[in-house]
Amino acid sequence: MRLLRRLLPHPILTLLLTLTWVLLTSTWTLNSLVFGFLLGLLIPFLTQPYWPQQMRLKKPLKIIEYILIVLYDIVVANLVVARIVVFKSNAKRQPAWVAVPLDLLTPEAITVLAGTITMTPGTVSADVSAEGHALLVHCLDAPDPGAVRDEIKQRYERRLKEIFE
Amino acid sequence: MIFEYLIAGFLVMAGIFGFVGSFGLIKLNDPMSRLHAPTKATTLGVGGVLLASMLHGVVVEGHLSLHELMITLFLFLTAPVTALFIAKVHIHRHETKESLPKAGEDSIWATHDVAEADPAAEDQQS
User: Fold this and answer.
1) Interface contact B90, partner A, CB < 8 A
2) In chain A, which residue's Cα lies nearest the Cα of B86?
3) Cα dist. A8→A11, A18, A65, A94, A104 in Å?
4) Are A134 and B104 inside 8 Å of each other by CB?
5) CA–CA separation, B11 vs B5, rounded Å?
6) For residue range A45-77, what is the model confidence (pLDDT) as tens digits?
7) Residues of chain B contacting A101 with CB distance shorter than 8 Å
8) Partners of A138 in beta bridges
9) Where are the domains of chain B?
10) Are A155 and A106 in contact (CB under 8 A)?
11) What angle do CA B110, B114, B118 make, to 5 degrees?
12) Strand A96-101 relative to strand A123-128, pairing
C-alpha cells in the first residue's frame, strides 16, 4: 500500500492526465490510452516533491454543481462588466481593494477559489496573506466592498469548503 | 439553416465581447482596472468562438470535436496565473502596506512579506 502511494501520489491527477491526453489526440484507440496513462504515471511521480501532501475530495459530485454555478456567473457577470466598461465613465467607476478572510485551509481549495475569483468578471484575486488566511481581491466597480466579500464567501467559498474539507 | 444562424450568433457575440475587452484596455485608466479587461475577453469572447466551433463540427462536418473543451480547460488554468503575476508586479511597484486593506489576522500580504533589504549586502553586490 505504501509502495502504491509512492508510485501513485495523486491518483486523481493520473486519471485527469490520461483523460486529457486521450482528448488531445482525439483518437479513441488503445494506443493513445496507454501512452496517456504512462504520462499520467510519470508526471505526478516527477512533480511529487513540489506537491507533497495528499489531496482529498470530500464530496466529488458537488464539483459539477460548482462548475455550473461558476459558468452561469461568468455569463451574467460578463454582461455586467461589459456595461461598466462601455457606459460608465472612469470618474464614476469606483475600483476597490477588498480583503476576503478565508475559512478554507487546504492550498488546493484556496487556489481554486482564487482562480474562480479571477475568472468571474469584475473581480481579480491579486494576493494571498502571508500565512494564507486572507485573499486580496481587486474589484472593477464596487460601491459596496462588503457585499463583494460576502458574495464570494457565501457563493464560492462555502461550496468549496463542502467539496474539499 | 437554423444552426447556421446559431453559429453566426455565437461568433458575433464572441466578437462583441472580444471588442469590449480590448476597448476596456484602452479606456480604463488605472493598471489594476486594465487587468480586468483581458481576463474577461478570455471567458465569453473565446467561449463563444469555441461553442461556435463545436456546433459547426457537429452539425456541418458531422463529427464531435472535443479539442474546444481542452482549450477551455487550458485557458481556465492559465488565465488566473497570468493575471496573478501582473497583479503582483503592480503591488511590488505601486502599492505600499498602507495603501492596501489590512490582511486580517496575518497583518501582511505575501508580496510585501519579504525581509527588509540589507544596505550592506546591496553595497557589496554593486
Assistant:
1) yes
2) A126
3) 6, 13, 28, 49, 26
4) yes
5) 10
6) 888 888 777 777 777 788 889 889 988 888 888
7) 104-105
8) A97, A124
9) 2-113
10) no
11) 170
12) unpaired
Burial B87-110 (b: 16+ CB within 10 A, else e): beebbeeebeeeebeebbebeebb
Contact A134 B113 (CB under 8 A): no
* CB proximity A74 to B under 8 Å: yes
Measured distance CA(A114)–CA(A112) in Å, rounded: 6
pLDDT-derived band at B126 (thresholds 50, 70, 90) equals very low
DSSP state of A83: H
Given this model, what pLDDT does residue A68 score? Answer: 92
pLDDT band at B118 (very low <50, low <70, confident <90, very high): low
- Residue B43 pLDDT > 80: no
Best A73, A85, A102, A105 member to test B by mutation, with max B CBs in 10 Å, is A85
> Distance, in angstroms, between A66 CA and closest chain B CA?
14
Residue A155 burial (C-beta neighbours within 10 Å; 0-12, 13-18, 19+): middle
Chain-centroid distance, C-alpha A30: 31
Residue that is written with C-alpha cell 500565512 in the block = A131
CB contact under 8 A, B105 and A127: no
A96-118 pLDDT, tens per residue? 888 888 888 888 888 889 888 88
Provide the whole-model pTM. Answer: 0.83
Contacts of A90 in chain B (CB under 8 A): 27-29
Q: How far is A165 from chain B (nearest CA, A)?
A: 21
Nearest in space to B65 (alpha carbons), one of B75, B78, B76, B52: B52
